Amino acid sequence: MKLPDKTTTIKAAIARIKDGDSVMVGGFGVPGTPMTLIRALVDHGARDLTLIKNDANEPDMGIDHLLQSGQVTRLITTHLGLNAHAIALMNAGKLDVEFNAQGILAERIRAGGAGLGAVLSDIGIGTELAQGKQVVDLAGKPHLVETALRADVALIHAERADTFGNLAYTGTAQNFNPLMAMAADCVIVEVETLLPTGALAAGEVQTVGVFVDHIAELETLSEEYAVVQR
Predict the structure, then answer these.
(1) If we measure between CA atoms, which residue out of 48, 229, 63 comes closest to residue 152?
(2) How buried is residue 222: exposed, middle or buried, by Cβ count under 10 Å (0-12/13-18/19+)?
(3) Would you give the distance in Å from CA 211 to the centre of its chain?
(4) For the segment 67-111, what is each residue's pLDDT rounded down to a tens digit?
(5) E-strand spans in 57-209?
(6) Residue 41: is it exposed, middle or buried by C-beta count within 10 angstroms (0-12/13-18/19+)?
């Protein structure tokens, strides 16, 4: 059986994102953030988006471009501390922000990719993080019900990929990208080095191609989208 070639243009892939979609965005700070896909989404113009990302990047970087363009209604994240613009939007009531402990955000995404409905945790009991959440008793201790997270689309950055979508990451890019690739209905990847299918050894594959829908190679993109990743 011949495996499909999932390579496409970045504009064709991003055009699948609709107004009102939920979008997971990979990355841990700068490493692993799909900068090129984000800029293409700004140009595409889809609005009323819910973003799920570990952080809000820094001003004039990453998802801050989506915040500046007014395309984001809600942000599910762990912190905004490096982005004064995001903080100002939240304080002005122009951005709805849901904060999570970092490990809880990762676990909610992992649960979504594993097909679970929720996970239980005692993290946040008695704090603002517990407001509005269901509390259940487990072995005599209260636990919060942390609902699983899935998204309509995930935007992923990988160092290497083959044309079927098997992915390999580098460094801290491994934190959220592999989890998000399993927790979205449509997974779009920007990749630094595109290889023929089978060129990645089995032990190098950190996301298997069955989870990936569309691949765009950074080197083939126009200078308009040439964004430095490191």
Answers:
(1) 48
(2) exposed
(3) 14
(4) 999 999 999 999 999 999 999 999 999 999 999 999 999 999 999
(5) 72-77, 96-99, 118-121, 135-138, 141-147, 151-162, 167-168, 184-195
(6) buried
